[in-house]
Amino acid sequence: MRLVTAPRTLGYVERRTGYRDGPTNRGAERRLPTSLIELHFKKGRLMPVPNSMQDYLRMFAGELGERILQSFPALQNANDPVSPRLATLLRKPFPAQTVAAMGVAKKWETDRSAAVIAECGTGKTLISLAALHVHSDGRPFIAIVMAPGHITLKWCKEALETIPRLRVFLIDGLRDRVRDTSTPSGVNEVKLRRGQIVREGLHTTLTDLRLRKNHKSARARWQQEICSGPALFVVGRDKGKLSHFWRHAYQVARSGRYQGSVVNPETGMRVETGERWLIASDFRKARLSEVVGGAGAKEEGTDLKSRRPIYSPLWQADGKRIRRVAPLDFIGRFMPGWFDYAICDEAHQLANDTAQGNGLGTLAACADHTVVLTGTLLGGYASDVYNLLYRLEGGKMAAHGYEWGEPGLRSFAETYGVLERVTTIEPADNSCSKSRVTKQIKRRPGASPLLFSEFLMSLAAFVSLEDISAELPTFTEQVIGVPMDVPLKAAYQALEEQIKSAIKEHHMNHSVISVGLNALLLYPDHAWDIGDLYGYDYDPETQRRERFLIAQPEDLDQGFVYAKERRLVEIVKAELQMGRRCCHVYAVYTRKRDVTRRLETILRREGIRVAVLTSDVPPEKREAWFAQRVREGIQVTISHPKIIETGIDLLNHSSLIFFESGYSLHTLRQASRRSWRIGQRQPVRVFYLHYEETMQSSCLRLMGRKLLVSLAMEGKFSREGLQSLDEEDDMLTAMARELVTENGVGESAAAVWRQIQAENSSILHSATVPPEPTPVVEDAPFTASLVAPPAAVEACLQAPKFGTRPPSLHPPMRRKEASPADVQFRLF
C-alpha cells in the first residue's frame, strides 16, 4: 500500500494481484524444494544455499524441467514421427514449424480450437496451412481465413504456393453490386499468374452458395458441382464485418429543466459521464450508449427502488443510406457447418468487444475447427485474452465461473491479473459536512502464471525467432541521438516551459497532456505552421467545455535543413554505398503536418530516388506497391509505420530508419521486424533517430523500458523488465510525469536500447557463437534456451509440450561463460 497526497486530498492505493495459491498449491510448494534437495543428496552433490529466487531456479533447473514434463506430457515431441502428408506440401516447413503444425493437428483431434503464437517472421501462415493439410488426411475440405484487408492477397498467394490442388476464393462482398462495376464484388476465384494474384475463374456470391437446389445440402452441391477438392476462402476483416450504416440518436431538449441540453430519447434525461454531462460535441464518430437503471442509479425526486439495468444505445441504423449485411453475419446465420476450418490472422487485434472481434466468434461457432494466429501473446494485461478465450473456448470459461461481459471480465482480471484500487479521501469543508470518499479501480501490467497453465498451455503452440535463428541473418538496432541546432533548441525549450506550466496548472487534464506532448514530439521535426495550442476543460457553471490557451510555438525557418535531417541523409547515403538495394524510412506525422513530403524533398535534392506510401493506397495493394517501386529503381521508401505494421515483407529493404518513432510500442515492434524474416539474405540494420534532451529521447527511452516488460511477459526475463512492471501503463502519462518531475534526466535512450540489444543477443547467442572444441553430433537436437550452460534446461526443453516453443534441429552450441546478472531462464 502506498500513500498518494494532493492539496486538500488524501488517498491511498491498494494493489491486488490474482496470483492465487490454494492449500494444495502451497503444500506442493513446500514439498517441492525438499524433494529436489533430497535428489541432489542422492546424486552426491554439494548443494550451496540459494540466495535468491534466480539462484534457486538456476540450481534446480533440470529437476524443475523434469517435473514440468511429467505434469504436462507433450502432444508432439521433436523426435516423434510426423505425418507423411507434410512431404506432399509444395513448400517444406522448418523443423520448428513442423512440430508446431503437428501439434495443432493433434490438438484438433480432441478439441475444436487451437492457437499459434509466433513472433514476426516465423511463418505462422505456413504452420496453419500445414496443419489443415495434415488434419484433413486427404479428404476434401473447405476452409475460411479472416485476415487484415491488406494481406488478403498475400494469404491467397501463400496458400496456392503451399497446398497442392487447392482452389482459393476471395470474398469481396456479400453479393454483386448493381451500380459500381469497377470494384470487385461477390466471391471470386483467384489464381497465381507470374507471381501475382489475379481474379480469374469462378464468380459467384454467398447468397448463391447457401442454396442447395437439387442436392441434399448446399455443401453437397458445392462438392459435386463446383469443387471436388480442397478450397480456401479468404475474407478481409474490414469487409467481413461491414454491416448497416448508423447515425446518432439523441435529442436536445427544447423546454423544461433540461432545455438546451442533450437528453436520452428513451428517458428524457441528461446522460451523465462521471462528473459532467454529455454535450453535442461529444457525439462525433464514436457510438455512445448508456445503461439506464441498476443498483447505482437513483431517480431524481423519487424514493423508488432501483430497477433492472437496461442498455440504451444513443445510436440507431440509418435507413436513408444503402442497406447491407456483413458477410460474416450472413455466414453465421445461413451457412452453419459449411466450413471445416477457420483461420484468424493477427488475433491480438480482435481482443476487444468490437464488430471484428465478434466476427471471430461467429467463425469459431460455424466452423468445425478453428486456429488463431498472433505474434503477441499479451499486451501486458491478463484481461487482454479474456474475450479471445471466451470466443474460442466459451464452455471452458463458463465452467470456470466466468460470464460474458463486464462482470466476467472484472472477475477474470481479479483472478489472473493485477488490479489497483485507489481511494481518495477529501477532508470535510466544515464541521457540518462529511469527508468525500471516492474509489477507483485501475488495471496494472501483470499476469498470473496460472493463466498460462490453466488456459494457454493447452490451447497454444509457441514459436519464437530463436527456434529458426540459424536460418536468419544478423539483426542490429542502433539508437542515434542528434544535438539540436541552436535556434531550434531555444525555441523548443521555450515551448517546453509553456507546456510544463499548463500541465501543472491544469492537473490531470487529458487534453493538455495529449495536445502538449504531441506538440513536443512534433516540434523538433516541424517547427513551423503549428499554430496556437488549446486545451479544453469542463466548466460546471456553463456546463460546457471551455477552451483555454496552452502554448504559442515559435515559427522557425522552413527552408533550413536541420540536424536530424542532415543525419538521415548521411545514413541513407552510407547504406546505399554499402550495396543495400533499398532503405525504408518511418515517420509518424502525416497529412496536416506532413513530415514525409519534406523528407522526400530533402532526399531528392541529394540525388536519391524516393517514393512515399500513403494511406490512399488500398491495403490490399500495398505489397504490390512496394514491388513496383523496386522495379522502378526506387532507393528509399517512406511511410507511416502503422500502415505496414502487419503482413508486409520488406525483404528488399534491409535498412529500416525510424525518423520518428511515435509512442506505440506494439507498432514499433511490428514495424521494426518487417525485414528480418524468413527469406531475408542480407543483415538487417534498424536505426532510431531522435533529438537529444527532448521528448523524443524520453519517449524512446520509456518505450525501451516497456519493451523489456514485454520481453518478460514472453518469458524473456530480465531484472530491469521485472522491476518496470510498476511503471505507468500509459505512455503519454509517463512522458508527462517525466516532463514535470524531470525524472530520467541524464539517462540515455541509447543506453536502454543497448540493454535490449544485449537481451536479444543473449537469445540468439547460441546460434551465432561457435561451440567449444568438443565433439559435436550433427543430428543432435538443438534447444534455443536462454540459459547457457545448464544442460539440464536443454534436456527439459528438448521434448516440447503443446503450448511450448518447439526446438530446432541444429547442433547444440554453448556460451563460454555467463555472469549471474546476465543469465536468463525460460520455463515455458
Structural notes for this entry:
With 828 residues, this protein is α/β, with parallel strands linked by helices. It is 34% helix and 19% strand. The chain has 26 helices and 29 strands. It has a nine-stranded mixed β-sheet with strand order 7-6-5-8-4-17-18-3-21. A six-stranded parallel β-sheet has the order 22-29-28-25-27-26, sandwiched between helices. Helix 11 (355-366) packs parallel to helix 12 (386-392), helix 22 (695-713) crosses helix 24 and helix 22 runs parallel beside helix 25 (749-768). The longest helix has 20 residues, at 23-42. It starts with a strand and ends in a 31-residue tail after the last helix. Residues 1-37, 717-729, 743-747 and 766-828 have low confidence and may be disordered.
CA radius of gyration is 29 Å
Give the amount of beta strand, in percent: 15-25%
Contiguous runs where pLDDT drops below 50 for at least 5 residues = 1-37, 717-729, 743-747, 766-828
Number of strands: 29
State the end-to-end distance: 32 Å
Per DSSP, the total helix count is: 26
Apparent shape: globular
Helix content range of the residues, please?
A: 25-40%
Overall pLDDT confidence? 75
Strands side by side in the biggest sheet: 7-6-5-8-4-17-18-3-21
Class of secondary structure makeup: alpha/beta
Major beta-sheet overview = 9 strands, mixed
